[in-house]
Amino acid sequence: MKIADIKKDIGHKLSSSINEIADKSEKIMDEELSGFYAGGTPTYYERTGTLGTTPQVADKYCSSNSAGVTLFLNQDISYATGNFTGAEVIDAAELGAAGIVGKSGFWKRSEERIKQTVDDVLSKKFK
Q1: In the chain, alpha helices (H)
Q2: Angle, alpha carbons 27-52-58 (nearest 5°)
Q3: What is the DSSP letter of 51?
């Protein structure tokens, strides 16, 4: 096999890996946010579900010398009630603070699961 063919093969495997990692990561974030809502029902405020819309996958890229995907919780959310910003709501929900009812730690668990997913996908594709 020629060097050019090897590079092409690596590029295809890496591009495929990035797409698989992005898809699985989005699913992980969605699962963890769904888990947050299963952590209890508030009695003194109305749950809107807005936090569940925050997982984002962006900037998938693969070039000859780097590859990656950007994953984040969109902080540009707003609520009609209360005076927290989107970022403050995400932080309070993650930490289980400010009286927000739900299963905290969703982002930390997402990060851990996504790191394992990256390892699993890459080790499978590049045996």
Answers
A1: 3-37, 86-95, 106-125
A2: 55
A3: G
